[in-house]
């Protein structure tokens, strides 16, 4: 997806819920659907005692993929291109949520690149889809990139979100519906 998406920014939480209803059943080169992945990431965040903001970030971290699906439908070339879903997601969420929600989302791809640079064993744990996207997203961070990333105020939140992202791919779990998290989204949204 490019920076000039025709999809408007979200102005209320109902629009996000509707997007997940329409496109959350799609698979994005993983064993679970977009919605299952989102819900599992949020559940992991809550179980770890994360703040409401970080749990909301876990729930919404891949919303940029759904925006791309809504604009273009499922398409094979999406697997061969860095769609910058993290940037698209943050742009879509910026009117509704504070930086404590959006910054970890913006950084979760960089967190994977960082982790691959500092932990050789981590690379071996990535799914095939995550390995493919790593290459498209720039590969392992350089030493200079690592220094900049580690200095970011949301560095730790982004790395934690990445861990939940990597773990939220369990087939056959009894997960709650996306709607279960609507109160959480309202708690952290601007003017809610």
Automatic annotation (TrEMBL):
Coiled coil: none annotated. Pfam families: HD. It comes from freshwater metagenome. CDD domains: HDc. InterPro entries: HD/PDEase_dom (IPR003607), HD_domain (IPR006674), OP_Dioxygenase (IPR052567). This is Unannotated protein. PANTHER family: HD DOMAIN-CONTAINING PROTEIN, PTHR40202. Residues 41-111 form the HD domain.
């Amino acid at each position: 997806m490019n920076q000039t998406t025709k999809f408007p920014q979200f102005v209320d939480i109902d629009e996000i819920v509707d997007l997940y209803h329409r496109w959350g059943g799609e698979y994005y080169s993983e064993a679970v659907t977009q919605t299952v992945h989102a819900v599992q990431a949020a559940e992991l965040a809550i179980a770890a005692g994360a703040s409401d903001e970080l749990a909301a970030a876990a729930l919404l971290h891949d919303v940029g993929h759904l925006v791309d699906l809504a604009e273009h439908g499922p398409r094979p070339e999406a697997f061969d291109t860095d769609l910058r879903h993290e940037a698209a997601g943050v742009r879509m969420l910026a009117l509704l949520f504070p930086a404590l929600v959006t910054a970890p989302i913006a950084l979760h791809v960089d967190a994977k690149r960082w982790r691959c640079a500092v932990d050789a064993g981590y690379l071996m744990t990535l799914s095939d889809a995550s390995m493919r996207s790593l290459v498209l997203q720039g590969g392992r961070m350089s030493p200079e990139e690592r220094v900049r990333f580690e200095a970011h105020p949301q560095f730790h939140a982004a790395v934690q979100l990445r861990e939940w992202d990597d773990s939220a791919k369990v087939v056959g779990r009894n997960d709650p519906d996306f709607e279960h998290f609507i109160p959480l989204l309202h708690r952290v949204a601007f003017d809610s």
